[in-house]
Q: What sequence folds into this?
């Protein structure tokens, strides 16, 4: 069992090649191979919550589709809970839950509860457990009063919470979330994140989360994997990602009056001056405190704020460096 | 029996989904009634000129018209079945959601379409048919057994109809946009099912061919059972034969589609 626990999801040199046909003439067609996932290897232990990020078209969704078994890898070895997904898709389906942020599993025209009754039958959930899980989801995802509302009348945030509940009624051991907070407002995002954190802590559900939202990762995942052009670029803690990408945070300081650029110790530097406001960039791996103390000591400081680097910029920088190396 | 309960739930859901749209149903009932009226007067004129055309007397011909109107949406002869939704899901990539479920794609959509067809039969079929039967002289059987035999043929017709439309819908895996294929199929189905004219009245070799095609299972076969023109058992055999062939073909295409074809979208 320990083998399965430390490598609950096992991806070993997996690749996925799509053949794309392009028209090159009136009747001529050129065949081209697109490598969506290229020699990808990683393992996820049972109960881990891992962020899986990368730019659009990086291969995130292709990976998730292979992990659910709806796409067959062109090469390599893939196991989820010891099951080969594409060979035993149906058997695996009982043990995993999937939420695609931009798609819905719910019955559009019918009240939410009808979709849940369908899940009850589809996953053959024992009645008592179905009741219990539904009550729990309704409470934690605040679906009370929404069960009798047709799905088409739900807001995006409500629908997303409805979809997450639908994916969890059968107690999946693994939950794949493909951009679960896309398009949600701040309150809805916080609700979804809170629920996922609790699910992972209480039930030990393994979670693989793809997102474009750095805050999702910061608040939920201790580990992050970065994929680009089908290859794993980084696998480790989020803090390490900033180091690897040599990303910078920005300290925005408002001074009492216009002053020449503040003298700060390298590698920090002033990148912009606009009236009494100055922007100071410093490595994301460093604490802002000494820098703030230093500035406060030499300048008349009115206000300040720290801006975090955004994930796309970090990845873009990382990729540019790999390409030139 | 677990999967039986699942597909029963899918059928019930399919029924209720269509039942949600009452205004659309009312509009459909009105349209079918008007269409029926126009077609009845055309048929009456035709049967005046050619009595016993296709072996039908005038009352049988009128009954046939109202059956056609009752079946138009039930068998999705002019579109409006689950194939439109299925094609859209393939095009948009939402089909991914259907594929990772522990359920069979074909059985799922068959169940959903049966629910839809049952609703359309009750919601959109019964009223125009009853209207026609009250206003015009029709030829309806007096015994319950013939009605039961007729209803069995209707259910088989629904399965055959789904079998064809499922194949059409799956073409979207390769064509990306299956609208053209769907329109061609609707046009072919409209003509070959006997919606324009009973297949019995088609002359010579053309008649032989259309009567052997799967579409003749849809309107012509149940109509002939109801009108006493065909025996129930040979009709069932014909319909069930096509149902098996079409569903088996659908299964093969489904396997090929899900194995080889890209699921759209990120």
A:
């Amino acid at each position: 069992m320990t083998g399965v626990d430390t490598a609950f999801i096992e991806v070993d040199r997996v690749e996925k090649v799509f053949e794309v046909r392009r028209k090159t003439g009136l009747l001529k067609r050129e065949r081209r191979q697109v490598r969506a996932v290229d020699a990808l290897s990683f393992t996820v232990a049972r109960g881990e919550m891992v962020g899986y990020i990368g730019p659009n078209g990086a291969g995130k969704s292709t990976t998730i589709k292979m992990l659910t078994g709806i796409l067959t890898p062109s090469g390599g070895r893939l196991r989820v809970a010891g099951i080969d997904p594409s060979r035993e898709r149906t058997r695996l389906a009982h043990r995993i839950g999937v939420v695609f942020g931009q798609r819905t599993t719910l019955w559009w025209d019918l009240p939410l509860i009808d979709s849940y009754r369908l899940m009850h039958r589809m996953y053959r959930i024992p009645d008592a457990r179905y009741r219990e899980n539904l009550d729990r989801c309704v409470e934690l995802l605040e679906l009370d009063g929404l069960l009798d509302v047709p799905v088409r009348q739900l807001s995006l945030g409500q629908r997303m919470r409805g979809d997450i509940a639908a994916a969890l009624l059968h107690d999946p051991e693994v939950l794949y979330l493909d951009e679960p907070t896309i398009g949600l407002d701040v309150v809805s995002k916080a609700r979804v994140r809170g629920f996922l954190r609790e699910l992972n802590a209480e039930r030990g559900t393994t979670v693989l989360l793809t997102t474009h939202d750095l805050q999702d990762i910061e608040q939920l995942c201790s580990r992050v994997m970065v994929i680009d052009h089908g290859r794993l670029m980084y696998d480790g803690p989020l803090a390490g990602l900033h180091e690897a990408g040599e990303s910078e945070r920005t300290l925005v300081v408002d001074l009492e009056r216009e002053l020449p650029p503040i003298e700060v110790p390298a590698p920090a530097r002033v990148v912009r001056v606009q009236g009494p406001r100055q922007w100071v960039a410093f490595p994301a791996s460093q604490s802002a405190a000494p820098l703030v103390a230093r500035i406060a000591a030499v300048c008349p400081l009115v206000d300040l704020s720290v801006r975090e680097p955004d994930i796309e910029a970090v990845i873009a920088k990382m990729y540019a460096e790999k390409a030139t190396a | 029996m677990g999967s039986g309960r699942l597909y029963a739930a899918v059928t019930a859901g399919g029924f209720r989904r269509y039942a949600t749209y009452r205004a659309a149903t009312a509009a459909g009932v009105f349209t079918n009634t008007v269409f029926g009226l126009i077609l009845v007067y055309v048929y009456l004129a035709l049967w005046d000129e050619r009595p016993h055309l296709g072996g039908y007397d005038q009352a049988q011909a009128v009954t046939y018209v109202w059956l056609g109107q009752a079946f138009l949406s039930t068998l999705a002869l002019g579109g409006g079945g689950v194939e439109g939704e299925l094609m859209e899901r393939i095009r948009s990539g939402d089909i991914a959601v259907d594929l990772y479920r522990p359920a069979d794609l074909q059985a799922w959509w068959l169940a959903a379409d049966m629910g839809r067809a049952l609703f359309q039969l009750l919601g959109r079929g019964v009223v125009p048919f009853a209207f026609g039967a009250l206003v015009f002289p029709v030829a309806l059987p007096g015994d319950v057994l013939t009605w039961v035999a007729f209803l069995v043929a209707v259910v088989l017709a629904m399965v055959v109809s789904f079998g064809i439309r499922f194949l059409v819908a799956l073409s979207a895996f390769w064509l990306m946009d299956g609208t053209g294929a769907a329109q061609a199929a609707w046009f072919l189905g409209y003509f070959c099912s006997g919606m324009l004219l009973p297949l019995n009245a088609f002359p010579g070799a053309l008649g032989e061919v259309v009567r052997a095609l799967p579409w003749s299972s849809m309107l012509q076969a149940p109509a002939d059972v109801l009108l006493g023109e065909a025996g129930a058992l040979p009709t069932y055999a014909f319909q069930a034969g096509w149902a098996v062939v079409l569903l088996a073909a659908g299964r093969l295409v489904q396997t090929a589609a899900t194995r080889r074809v890209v699921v759209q979208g990120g």
